[in-house]
Amino acid sequence: MLIATWNVNSLKARLPRVEEWLADVAPDVLCIQETKLAQDKFPTEAISALGYESAHFGQGQWNGVAIVSKVGLSNVITNFASGIEQDGEARIITALCDGVQVSSVYVPNGRALDHDHYTYKLSWMSRLRAHLDATAKKTDKVIVAGDFNIAPDDRDVWDVSQFEGSTHVSQPERDVLETVCEFGLEDTFRRFHDDAGIFSWWDYRGGSFHKGHGMRIDLILATRAVAEESTWTIIDRNARKGEQPSDHAPVLLKIGK
DNA sequence: ATGGTCGTTGCACGA
After folding, report:
1. Which residue, A87, A101, A199, A228, is most buried by CB atoms nearer than 10 A?
2. What span, in angstroms and rounded, lies between the C-alpha atoms of A233 and A236?
3. E-strand stretches of A111-178
4. Nucleotide nearest to A9 (CA to C1')
5. Percent of chain A residues past pLDDT 90, beyond the cut
6. What are phi and psi of A50, to 5 degrees?
7. CA of A64 to C1' of B8 (A)
8. A103 CA to B11 C1' distance (Å)
9. Nucleotide nearest to A201 (CA to C1')
10. Which CA distances in Å does A178 have to A33, A184, A198, A215, A222?
11. How confident is the model at residue A24 (pLDDT cuts 50, 70, 90)?
12. Residues A154 and A160 sit within 8 Å (Cβ to Cβ)
């Protein structure tokens, strides 16, 4: 299985780029974030024309997550699993794809350390852990992929001194990411790459992409049953180039040969 | 240098 995650920053604005990328790269599964589409506005037919089934959890002009798959798509759960405090926004969708439980997640940004949205972000991550506990076992094949809005460690930002007092790098955020991982997940990118300075997001402003000013905040977390079978991972920074790119690049993980 | 660029919508705000 080739699985990818991509925050597209509006699927309406990005559909031509997404169609081109799906046709070119042909992943088996793509987790999409920030569709910014109402539930019934997802381009199901355009995606189907490329050979993919779709499951979308949309909200309107903000947020929105989806999973598209050509290896099966069943047991869809929108929002957190029943029994967990439901989120008011469309930030998580879960489905079963070829025996792997896949979640596409768009973790709240947090905005600032003293903002209510930061507390919401930490709460959201705690509920993500509860969602995993409620829906799977650590010995299952589980993937949680998406935009976490958290840089796991200092290698994952272009200049840590620029982030003092900021979100995405604070210890509580990194700790709650670790709490989610303690379900039995690992950051699969670090199984293959130790280097600092490999990023998945670059601000549109100020030529950040060309200056190498980015962060690695888009992650593919996987249980051991998946991670041990994985063979490579890349961030497709070519998708951040050219006409009307998203500000995020897709992250890919190959499972098996 | 507290800017800058996109996306949404609607004449600002979120990222």
Report:
1. A199
2. 10
3. 142-147
4. B7
5. 100
6. -95, 5
7. 13
8. 38
9. B15
10. 22, 10, 20, 18, 13
11. very high
12. yes
For residue A142, give the amino acid letter. V
The one-character DSSP state at A34 is: -
In chain A, the number of structural domains is: 1
Q: Which of A66, A59, A62, A126 is nearest to A95 (CA)?
A: A66
**Mean pLDDT rounded to a whole number for chain A:** 98
Q: Strand B: which bases are under 7 Å from protein Cβ?
A: 4-9, 14-15
Give the pTM.
0.98
Identify the band that residue A238 occupies on the pLDDT scale cut at 50, 70 and 90. Answer: very high
For A26-77, write each residue's pLDDT tens digit: 999 999 999 999 999 999 999 999 999 999 999 999 999 999 999 999 999 9
SS3 A20: helix
Q: What is the pLDDT of residue A179?
A: 98
Q: Output the six-digit token pair for A174.
A: 């990194």
Footprint of strand B on the protein (CB under 7 A): A 9-10, 12-14, 36, 60-62, 108-109, 111, 117, 203-206, 244
CATH number at residue A90: 3.60.10.10
Q: How confident is the model at residue A104 (pLDDT cuts 50, 70, 90)?
A: very high
Is residue A35 within 8 A of residue A62, CB to CB? The reply is no
What is the arithmetic mean of pLDDT over A133-146? 98
Structural domain range at position A213: 2-255
Tell me the CA distances in angstroms from A134 to A84, A102, A130, A238, one per residue in order.
9, 14, 6, 38
Rounded Cα distance, A49 and A52, in Å: 7
